[in-house]
Amino acid sequence: MTDRSGRERLLIVDTGAIRELVLFHAVQEFRFERLRRELRFIKNRDAYEKCGRFIALYERKTTSASVVGELYQWIRKTDPTGQRRLWGRIYDEFRGMGMDEEVVKLLDMDVNLVTRFGPVDVSLIELARLYTRDNLRVLTVDTALHGECRQAGLRVSLVQEITGVLG
Fold first, then answer.
1. Which residues touch 137 (CB under 8 Å, ≥6 apart)?
2. Does domain 8-163 have CATH number 3.40.50.1010?
3. Rounded distance, CA 20 to CA 22, Å?
């Protein structure tokens, strides 16, 4: 269901989608050429804009604190001289999207799902279950998470489908 402005209600954003947006800027704007090989689905301005338009369809955007932890794990493996700029870009993306960040406690997660998918993905599934009345969608690059969301009856989109850049 859309709201009166025609926008969808809630988009739950996975690590990979945020990482792709940040990587695009790191390569194109900051000229961090060593990160170019990590770009998978947002390789040009057109793909970036398609993803941005898709995200803008949603009134609210949220992610889990676990996603921020996963972004930290990625950034700490990059060149230390560029880490502050990468974090700055993440802050810019969060502000630009109006991103909320929510905590999902480990003890609130199904241990079997955590074993299978890890706590980050399960935190997003739990957020989706919490907000099922909000006409939500999960945005990811992770095909395993995509499949689990579909199996759980959740609406889910892959960045690679939105941008037209399939693996």
1. 8, 10, 11, 12, 58, 154, 155, 156, 157
2. yes
3. 5
Reported as a pLDDT band with limits 50, 70 and 90, residue 167 is: low
Helix axes 15-28 and 45-56, enclosed angle (nearest 10): 140
DSSP letters for 91-154: HHHHHHHTEEEE---GGGS-HHHHHHH-HHHHHHHHHHHHTGGG-EEEEES-HHHHHHHHHTT-
Domain definitions of the chain by residue range? 8-163
Q: Is 163 left (phi over 0), alpha (psi -120 to 50) or beta?
A: alpha
Q: What's the predicted TM-score (pTM) here?
A: 0.92
d(CA 89, CA 32): 13
Tens of pLDDT, residue by residue over 53-89, are 999 999 999 999 999 999 999 999 999 999 999 999 9
- Which pLDDT band holds residue 1 (cuts at 50, 70, 90)? very low
**Per-residue b or e along 111-122, where b marks 16 or more CB atoms closer than 10 Å to that residue's CB:** eebeeebebbbb
For the stretch 37-55, pLDDT in tens is: 999 999 999 999 999 999 9
Amino acid symbol at 77: K
